[in-house]
Amino acid sequence: MNILITGAAGYIGSHVVKQLLESKKHNITVIDSFKTGFKETIKTLQSFGSFKFIEQDLSQWDEVESILKKYQFDTVIHFAASLLVGESVENPLKYYVNNTCNTANLVNLCNKYGVKKFIFSSTAAVYGEPSSNKMPLVETEFTSPINPYGNSKLMSEQIIKDAASANKEFKYVILRYFNVAGAEESLSIGECHDPETHLIPLVVQTALGKRNKIFIFGDDYDTFDGTCIRDYIHVDDLASAHISALEYLEKKNSEVFNCGYGHGFSVKEVIDMIKKVSGVDFKVEVSSRREGDPAILIADNKKILKETNWKPKHDNLEFICKTALEWEKKR
Ligand code: UFG
Q1: pLDDT value at position 292?
Q2: What is the pLDDT, as a whole number, of residue 125?
Q3: Residue 149 catalytic?
Q4: Where exactly are the structural domains of the chain?
Q5: Exposed e or buried b for every residue in 217-226, given b needs 16+ CB within 10 A?
């Protein structure tokens, strides 16, 4: 297949590109603006196989159109997005422009230039703050985002679905990511967010002495130990879900899939695991709740397991934390 990947220099995008290159089955073109992705990541990816790289921001619609017109892709995998929940509350328009408008433009161009398959990075944030008795969450659960980030992704989902209803040649898979973490085993690429806000990299940095302490955002939730529970999925398993989605679209029709393991761990369990794998007893302090954090978020993953050939390999918190730690040491 002739595939375009946007946001390929980012955390999840780069892991998908690596797997696609290793499969040696496709003709790959990647674009990234390097606003949040890294040039170094593209250089590293070049050691896994050849692909075309174009430095391009999706907001430059004329240039994006020239690329789609020139290369006649049959598939687009769209990662490029802004993804900080807090920032989205302070600067919502950045999210509606970067995430929603640029996705609408990209989908429009896909329709104009005959792209037939579209794989979209969505998020558990589209579910908002579901009550704990809804867990594990099925894809048909009510969507009700509580911040502009989640809204920007849900609107993008709707745009993609409407485009597909109007154009029977255009099919999509929307993947709703739960809490992605870890790094691929050879540690050539891994997680690099600036600023970092996610639990596992922050705890790992604390274990390595890069931070003085880790805050637990609330220990008075209605969970077994009072801290929030999340469904942590290893980045290589999330990446392989995209490969499965590609294969799924070869034969089947559009679909939305949750990406998670179907069970979760508490913040305290994650911290204890990182203490175990690092052998370091670092400082932990309980602070107040972070606004908008549901007590529990767990994916019901039956649909992706049944409908696609996805076979997760790293449903193991210890492995996730170990690879996150080793990557943090190395980078
Ligand atoms: N947490 C802490 N201390 C920290 C950081 C996080 O206690 O320093 C807690 C949070 O309160 C939460 C859990 O750790 O309970 C996980 O938090 P993350 O920030 O790592 O992840 P989120 O669950 O908030 O976010 C994930 C995705 C988002 C997506 C969201 C959907 O990373 O992109 O799920 O709800 F929007």
Answers
A1: 86
A2: 97
A3: yes
A4: 2-181+232-260
A5: bbbebebeeb
CB 6 within 8 A of CB 80: yes
CATH code 3.40.50.300 for 2-181+232-260: no
The percentage of the chain sitting over the pLDDT mark of 70, rounded to a whole number, equals 100
Residues in the chain where the model's pLDDT stays below 70: none
Q: Is the pTM of this model over 0.85?
A: yes
| Catalytic-labelled residue, pool 11, 149, 232, 261 | 149
Does ligand 1 have an atom closer than 6 angstroms to the CB of 228?
Answer: yes
* pLDDT number for residue 87: 94
Ligand 1 atom closest to the CA of 229, numbered from 1: 15
The DSSP string of 171-220 is EEEEEEE-EEE---TT-SS----SS---HHHHHHHHHTTSSSEEEEE-S-
Q: Whose CA is nearest to atom 33 of ligand 1?
A: 83
